[in-house]
Amino acid sequence: MKSLNILIVFVIAATFAHAQNKKYIKTMETSIPTIFQAESTESLDATANKFDRIGQAEESEWEPYYYAALSHVFKAFRIEDLQAKDKVLDQALVSLGKAGMLSENNSEIIALQGFINMIKIGVDPGTRGQTLSPKIMADFGKAMELAPNNPRTNLFMGQMLFGTAQFFGTGVEDACALVDKSMALFESEKPASSIAPSWGLYSAKQYKQQCESALAKKESQE
After folding, report:
1. Interatomic CA distance for residues 6 and 101, integer angstroms
2. Is the pLDDT of residue 11 over 90?
3. In the structure, what pLDDT confidence band is assigned to residue 8 with cuts at 50, 70 and 90?
4. pTM value?
């Protein structure tokens, strides 16, 4: 009888956990698209706050804090004031830090961290270029080592190399090769789950156009 009672408790607990997991997945599936559909910074604030609440409720899940960070990143893109942009990016790093504590050596988290710091360079290129660039390259390098076929990591590295090449007036071939690779990877990407990161193709297409323009300009000058 005692064994039977233990088995019943186990079945009930497993059933409850499964129901909770289904609820979590469903909530995330309906929340993630709001990042890309947001029409204002206020909407992105609401989205980030919602993911924070989901993260607080689901203490072992890293995805809510990842998407909270991404919401802050998308907000930063819409802010022109550099100091305000910087504060939002700092918020993104805080959220991402919580995700990193729940999932170590996660290529998505590490890559997004490098991407956020890459944006932060633009706030003060003269001061931050030398200090943040090595950290960014280290993050992208580690992310690519962990997941060589992660399209976002390849795109971010391509963006970093493209910006560096433009700044120093050097060739963009290596950068554009990574952008091309990222596009191919986006097209064939099969996310690990319905809530796994799968964004970035739109940005890759934009950088593809920049690459074509830069390469065409170089050819015309030769």
Report:
1. 33
2. no
3. very low
4. 0.89
Give the separation between CA 135 and CA 117, rounded to whole angstroms. 8
Contact (CB, 8 A) for 133 and 175: no
- Distances in Å between the Cα of 135 and the Cα atoms of 29, 34, 90, 125 are 32, 31, 16, 15
Q: Following DSSP, what letter does each residue of 103-159 receive, concatenated?
A: STT-HHHHHHHHHHHHHHHHHSHHHHHHHHHHHHHHHHHHHHHH-TT-HHHHHHHHH
Cα separations (Å) of 106 from 113, 117, 177, 196, 199? 11, 17, 24, 12, 16
Torsion sign, CA atoms 98, 104, 105, 107: negative
Residue 6 has pLDDT above 80, yes or no: no
Cα distances (angstroms) measured from residue 166 to each of 134, 148, 173, 214: 18, 25, 11, 9
Residue 13 or residue 102, greater confidence: 102
Which token pair is 66? 């990842």
What residue type is assigned to position 172 of the chain? Answer: V
Residue at token pair 């964004």: 199
Nearest in space to 120 (alpha carbons), one of 109, 133, 139, 108: 133
Confidence of residue 52 (pLDDT cuts 50, 70, 90): very high
202's tokens: 């739109």
How many Cβ atoms are within 10 Å of 180's Cβ, its own excluded? 16
